[in-house]
C-alpha cells in the first residue's frame, strides 16, 4: 500500500514519546534500563485518542557512537521498528536529535565538533529514511549555540546536505535560546527567515511552556490571559513569512489553572489552523513515573487530567483529512 502524507487542512496532533534519549549521561547505556524505545501499547494508546504525530527524541551519541562514523545498527533498528509501527497505525514520526546542539558535550561549530559532523549524521539518516513520507527530520532539539545567525547557517548546511541525497522528507528547523515561541521573533526570526529549502518542505519548530519563566520546570502556571501572548509571537512570525510551524514541546502541570492554560493554548492553535502543521505535547513514554507533565496513564489505567483535556479538544475537531 502506498503511504500518503495526510492532507494538511487538519492540524496533526501528537506527543513526544520520550525514552530513547533518557540517561544522557550514561553512554551508551543499557537498553531496557537506562533508556527504552516506545512499545506498541504506547502507539496504540495515543493513536486511539486521535494522535497522528510522534516526536521521537533520540541520543546522537547512541545513534552514531563515533564522530562521522557508521550509525549503530541496534539503535537504528529500534528507530526503524518504531517508524514502521507508527506508520501502520496511521501516524507520522519526527526523528528528533535531542542533543541541544552538541555532540559528546561539545557544541557544533567548535573545533571538537565541526559542522561536518552534524551534516554527516543527517546525510546518513537521509539515506536511511529519505524514501519514507511518514518520517520528518527534526534537525536538533533546543540548540545552545549563542548566535541565531550561526545556528541558522549550520541548519542550512544540513538542509542542503539532506536534499543532495534526494530525500524529500519534511524538515523541522529550530531556534536557539530554548526555541521559545514567546520570544521567537526577536531571538530567531530574522536568522531563520533566511533558511531555504529547494523542495519547499521546511517547517519551523518552537517550544512553549506555561510556567512563570517558560522553562517547563515548575508545576505552576501563569494566568490564562497570558497564554495567547506566549504563542502569538511564533504564530505571527509564521503568518508573516507564509510558513508552517510545529509546537514541538509544550506541557502543563495538573492544577486547575494549568489545565485551563492547556485548553486555552489548544483553542488558540486551532483558531489559526493555516499556520500549524501539528503539535506534540511533552510528554509521553514509560519512564516518567509521576513526572508533573506526563500523559502516560496511571498504574490503574486511569487517564491523566492533561490527557482528558487533549482528548476533549481532539474530539471537538472535525475528523476529515485525518485519514491517510
From TrEMBL:
Record key words, sorted: Glycosidase, Hydrolase
InterPro entries from the UniProt entry: GH, Glyco_hydro_5
Matching Pfam families: Cellulase
Transmembrane segments: none
Ranges for domain Glycoside hydrolase family: 27-283
Gene3D superfamilies xrefs: Glycosidases
Family: Belongs to the glycosyl hydrolase 5 (cellulase A) family.
UniProt protein name: Cellulase family glycosylhydrolase
Organism: Acetobacter musti
Taxonomic classification: Bacteria, Pseudomonadati, Pseudomonadota, Alphaproteobacteria, Acetobacterales
Amino acid at each position: 500500500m502506498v503511504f500518503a502524507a495526510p492532507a494538511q487542512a487538519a492540524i496533526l496532533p501528537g506527543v513526544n514519546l520520550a525514552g530513547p534519549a533518557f540517561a544522557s549521561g550514561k553512554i551508551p547505556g543499557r537498553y531496557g534500563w537506562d533508556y527504552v524505545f516506545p512499545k506498541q501499547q504506547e502507539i496504540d494508546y495515543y493513536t486511539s485518542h486521535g494522535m497522528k504525530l510522534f516526536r521521537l527524541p533520540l541520543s546522537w551519541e547512541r545513534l552514531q557512537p563515533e564522530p562521522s562514523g557508521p550509525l549503530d545498527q541496534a539503535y537504528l533498528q529500534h528507530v526503524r521498528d518504531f517508524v514502521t509501527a507508527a506508520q501502520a497505525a496511521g501516524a507520522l514520526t519526527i526523528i528528533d536529535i535531542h542533543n541541544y546542539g552538541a555532540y559528546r558535550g561539545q557544541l557544533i561549530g567548535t573545533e571538537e565538533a565541526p559542522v561536518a559532523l552534524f551534516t554527516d549524521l543527517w546525510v546518513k539518516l537521509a539515506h536511511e529514511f529519505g524514501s519514507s513520507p511518514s518520517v520528518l527530520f527534526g534537525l536538533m532539539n533546543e540548540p545552545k549555540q549563542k548566535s541565531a545567525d550561526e545556528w541558522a547557517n549550520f541548519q542550512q548546511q544540513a538542509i542542503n546536505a539532506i536534499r543532495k541525497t534526494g530525500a524529500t522528507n519534511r524538515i523541522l528547523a529550530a531556534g536557539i535560546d530554548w526555541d521559545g515561541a514567546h520570544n521567537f521573533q526577536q531571538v530567531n526570526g530574522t536568522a531563520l527567515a533566511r533558511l531555504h529549502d529547494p523542495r519547499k518542505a521546511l517547517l519551523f519548530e518552537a517550544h512553549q511552556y506555561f510556567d512563570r519563566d517558560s522553562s517547563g520546570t515548575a508545576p505552576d502556571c501563569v494566568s490564562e490571559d497570558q497564554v495567547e501572548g506566549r504563542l502569538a509571537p511564533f504564530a505571527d512570525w509564521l503568518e508573516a513569512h507564509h510558513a508552517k510551524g510545529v509546537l514541538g514541546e509544550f506541557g502543563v502541570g495538573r492544577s486547575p489553572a494549568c489545565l485551563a492554560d492547556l485548553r486555552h493554548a489548544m483553542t488558540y492553535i486551532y483558531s489559526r489552523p493555516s499556520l500549524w502543521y501539528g503539535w506534540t505535547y511533552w510528554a509521553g513514554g514509560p519512564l516518567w513515573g509521576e513526572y508533573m507533565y506526563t500523559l502516560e496513564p496511571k498504574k490503574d489505567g486511569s487517564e491523566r487530567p492533561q490527557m482528558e483535556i487533549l482528548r476533549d479538544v481532539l474530539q471537538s475537531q472535525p475528523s476529515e483529512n485525518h485519514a491517510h
